[in-house]
Amino acid sequence: MKKIAILTGAGISAESGLGTFRAEGGLWAQHRIEDVATPEGFARDPRLVVNFYNARRAQAAKAEPNEGHRALARLEEAFGGEVIVITQNVDDLHEKAGSQKVMHMHGALKSALCAACDHRWPAPLVMAPGDICPACNSPAARPDIVWFGEMPYDMDEIFEHLASADVFASIGTSGNVYPAAGFVAEARRAGAQTVEFNLEPSLQGSQFDDIRIGSASETLPVWVD
Ligand code: BV8
């Protein structure tokens, strides 16, 4: 059975109004990565970090998927083989657009995690430091987000998808962050045809067989339909 493995980054959600990270005025221009996206930052100032994700969770809750997300959902529906979306994004716009097979390798705003027992549960819209874990009753709730220095989720399954993909598409990611930035090399090693969708070639752009320059909401429908 044919398989299309798709990696998405903040760029696919940009046209839904959600900030990217490294653009002018992007999320990392407003906050230092060390302060809001590392375990050390959380230990130092849990309220700052929890509020950073509360703001993004509220924004994501109001956001709508765009034509790029919808094109990927149509692809999954219409394609005779398997389509798997591996997203670095923590919003739920792929699911809102109708994609069924979505892997959140960097976690999800809609999920809370217990730092004491690893239990996960649906996050309230507003979290506070010391929220109680419903499984072990410890005041150890944290955003279910993979911070820098933490292991992304489901890496074994992700590498299996990359090793068996016929096509690998990377959409709206700058190719800065590992291990996601290394996925195109894995897919190429497995013999997949590789295509990148971005406003400009990413740091990994030279490794792709094909690059489609433009906004994902325009380039993806052309590719899918
Ligand atoms: C780990 C949290 C190891 C959620 C994030 C080498 C190998 C392995 C690791 C490393 C390495 N070197 C350094 C590392 C460590 C580090 C890393 O990669 N650092 C970088 C900065 C050098 N990696 C890690 O720490 C990872 N963990 O390696 O663990 C380990 C081993 C054993 C045991 C324990 C641990 C964890 C990385 C995850 C970190 N968490 N975010 C959140 O807050 O959202 S990463 C953060 O950046 C985001 O989650 C996002 O997913 C990610 C990537 O950003 P992009 O999505 O690419 O967004 P960006 O703004 O950069 O780019 C947007 C792109 O879209 C642009 O190209 C733009 O042109 C394009 N675009 C814009 N508009 C559009 C568009 N394209 C199309 N259409 C449009 N309309």
Descriptive overview:
- This protein is globular.
- It has two domains: 1-18 and 66-106 and 154-225, Rossmann fold (3-Layer(aba) Sandwich); 20-62 and 108-145, 2-Layer Sandwich (SIR2/SIRT2 'Small Domain'), CATH 3.30.1600.10.
- Strands 3-2-1-7-8-9 form a six-stranded parallel beta sheet, with helices on both faces. A three-stranded antiparallel beta sheet has the order 5-4-6.
- With 225 residues, it is an alpha/beta fold.
- The relative contact order is 0.19.
- The model has no long low-confidence stretch (mean pLDDT 96).
- The chain has helices spanning 11-14, 27-30, 33-36, 39-44, 46-62, 67-78, 93-97, 155-163, 183-189, 216-224, and strands at residues 3-8, 82-87, 102-104, 107-114, 120-122, 141-145, 167-171, 193-198, 210-213.
- Bound molecules: ligand BV8.
What is the total domain count?
2
Low-confidence stretches: none
- Report the order of strands and helices: EHHHHHHEHEEEEHEHEEH
How large is the count of helical segments?
10
Which CATH class of the largest domain is shown?
A: Alpha Beta
Major sheet: size, sense and barrel closure? 6 strands, parallel
State the secondary-structure class: alpha/beta
| Mass-distribution shape | globular
Beta strands, count: 9
* Bound chemical compounds: ligand BV8
Spatial arrangement of strands, main beta sheet: 3-2-1-7-8-9
- CATH fold group of the largest domain: Rossmann fold
How far is it from the N-terminal to the C-terminal residue, by CA? 20 Å
CATH architecture call of the largest domain: 3-Layer(aba) Sandwich
The amount of helix comes to 25-40%
What's the CATH H-level superfamily name of the largest domain?
TPP-binding domain
Strand content: 15-25%
**What would you report as the Rg, rounded to the nearest angstrom?**
17 Å
Mean residue pLDDT = 96
Enzyme class: transferase
GO molecular function: histone deacetylase activity, NAD-dependent; NAD+ binding; protein-malonyllysine demalonylase activity; protein-succinyllysine desuccinylase activity; zinc ion binding
Function: NAD-dependent lysine deacetylase and desuccinylase that specifically removes acetyl and succinyl groups on target proteins. Modulates the activities of several proteins which are inactive in their acylated form.
Catalytic activity: N(6)-acetyl-L-lysyl-[protein] + NAD(+) + H2O = 2''-O-acetyl-ADP-D-ribose + nicotinamide + L-lysyl-[protein]; N(6)-succinyl-L-lysyl-[protein] + NAD(+) + H2O = 2''-O-succinyl-ADP-D-ribose + nicotinamide + L-lysyl-[protein]
